[in-house]
Design goal:
This protein is 15% helix and 38% strand. By secondary structure, the protein is α+β, with helices and mostly antiparallel strands. The chain has a single domain, classed as Gcn5-related N-acetyltransferase (GNAT) (Aminopeptidase), CATH 3.40.630.30. The longest helix is centred in the middle third of the chain and has 15 residues. It starts with a strand and ends in a 10-residue tail after the last strand. This is GNAT family N-acetyltransferase. InterPro entries: Acyl_CoA_acyltransferase, Bact_Acetyltransf, GNAT_dom, Streptothricin_AcTrfase. Keywords: Acyltransferase, Transferase.
């Protein structure tokens, strides 16, 4: 299901991942700048969350192109790639989660392509995929050190559904990294009586 969105003078196109997925992953920079850790405050805009400022550093979660190979063209999952002016610059992996929501397992945009609507377009494709499956909404997880992602999800209508302060402690017992679970609900109430 191709999706084309005009963004300024650039064109963002999204289509099902193809054989070029591994080369695109291996040739992309998915790192981001970390300047602070946020304290999630429910019902408060991300821009108003209290911050613990730190010495700035680049963070990159390693992405293995084989990790989601079974998701491609499967009945309950899919991998989509985004192209900006014909170049592969982003991807989203979406599946049906155990709780019935669409689950964005991964969303990443090549650093030089950020700010062109690529991530927003990929979120829209994941939302469209989830709606076509008849799911009640979409969920995803990010961290309190990725404030750009948190602001994006909030702008796209996602709300914080939960926070897990222990999720990353097994990797680093001293980490200040906290998991934030975001939800976009398609209906006003869980029973789906309003849309």
């Amino acid at each position: 299901m191709p999706s084309t969105v005009n963004v300024g003078k650039s064109r963002v196109q999204v289509r099902v991942a193809d054989a070029g997925f591994a080369a695109y992953i291996n040739g992309s920079d998915f790192s981001f700048q970390v300047d602070a850790y946020a304290e999630v405050a429910h019902g408060v805009a991300v821009t108003d969350w209290p911050l613990c400022r730190i010495a700035s550093y680049r963070k990159c979660y390693g992405i293995d192109p084989e990790e989601f190979s079974s998701y491609r063209n499967a009945p309950d999952s899919e991998v989509f790639m985004a192209y900006l002016d014909g170049q592969a610059v982003g991807h989203v992996v979406v599946s049906t989660n155990w709780n019935g929501y669409g689950h964005i397992d991964e969303l990443a945009v090549h650093a030089p392509a950020r700010g062109h609507g690529v991530a927003r377009t990929l979120l829209e494709v994941a939302q469209f995929w989830s709606r076509r499956k008849g799911l009640p909404g979409v969920m995803l997880e990010t961290q309190n050190n990725n404030l750009g992602a948190c602001r994006l999800y909030e702008r796209c209508g996602y709300v914080v559904g939960g926070v897990d302060r222990l999720r990353y402690r097994g990797i680093d017992p001293q980490t200040r990294e906290v998991a934030i679970f975001w939800y976009l609900l398609f209906a006003e109430d869980p029973a789906g009586n309003a849309s």
